[in-house]
Specification:
The structure is a single chain. The chain has 226 residues and is of the alpha/beta class. 41% of the residues lie in helices and 22% in strands. The chain has 2 domains: 118 residues, 3-Layer(aba) Sandwich (Rossmann fold); 98 residues, Winged helix-like DNA-binding domain superfamily/Winged helix DNA-binding domain (Arc Repressor Mutant, subunit A), CATH 1.10.10. It is built from 9 helices and 12 strands. Strands 2-1-3-4-5 form a 5-stranded parallel β-sheet, sandwiched between helices. Strands 6-7-8-9 form a 4-stranded antiparallel β-sheet, with no helix packed on it. A hairpin with a 4-residue loop joins β7 and β8. The longest helix has 15 residues.
Length: 226
């Protein structure tokens, strides 16, 4: 049985989620106060998934997310009445795996939970050393040899790095990258990928115009090598 930690202060939402997740076969433990969850953080990080409200009494969900990520890569799904893009981006940069705005569709919430729990069972790389820079896939941070954070990745940047790592040494076409990361229902241009590569070269390459890791393959796409 998978165990879920629900950190939410609205009692009606707690009961709604608890009831439906238990019907799905999950075991649910809830906290309705941010500080109490923080005080029990060693217990919290042992769960298979954490559902975390942003606006909590005494201690915010964003702060709690940072605390959790300092200790664990347990999947985190944010719930929040604040559905604006800046808050979603902030939550994801803090290390959350997903973000769902209130009011939410219950079926969608359950589907997202199943997806996150399924991904947790897959082998995931936690850290990747590229030259003199280490990528932390849990905190979304790029750290140099002095231990300084030199860049905080977006969720899309992390997904692209994971894709390059998966295909390390092989040429990946722009079409494959667009299809895998954006899907067929979105329409970014190949120039979108080029801009990400320029960013990666600035972060990882000593000489961005003479790359050792992120190579352009004319007319096709890119090849990542370690």
């Amino acid at each position: 049985m998978m165990n879920i930690c629900l950190i939410e202060d609205e009692e009606n939402i707690v009961e709604l989620i608890r009831l439906n997740l238990e019907l799905e076969g999950f075991k649910v433990r809830s906290f309705q106060n941010g500080m109490r969850a923080k005080e029990s953080i060693q217990e919290v990080i042992q769960f298979d998934l954490i559902i975390l409200d942003v606006m909590l009494p005494e201690y915010s969900g964003f702060d709690l997310c940072k605390d959790i990520r300092a200790l664990s890569d347990t999947p985190i799904l944010f719930l929040s009445a604040k559905g604006i893009a800046t808050d979603r981006i902030h939550g994801l940069k803090l290390g959350a795996n997903d973000y769902l705005a209130k009011p939410f569709d219950l079926e969608e919430l359950i589907l997202r939970i199943h997806n996150l729990v399924a991904k947790k069972t897959e082998h995931k790389i936690n850290n990747l050393q590229i030259g003199e820079v280490k990528v932390n896939f849990s905190s979304y941070e790029a750290v140099n040899t002095n231990g300084e954070i030199i860049h905080v990745f977006s969720k899309r940047e992390i997904e692209l790095l994971e894709l390059f790592y998966e295909f390390e040494g092989k040429v990946i076409s722009r079409d494959i990258i667009l299809d895998k990361l954006w899907g067929k229902d979105n329409f970014p241009t190949s120039r979108t990928i080029d801009n990400y590569i320029l960013t990666f070269r600035k972060i990882f390459e000593k000489k961005p115009k003479e790359p050792n890791f992120f190579h352009s393959v004319r007319g096709v796409g890119y090849r990542f090598t370690l």
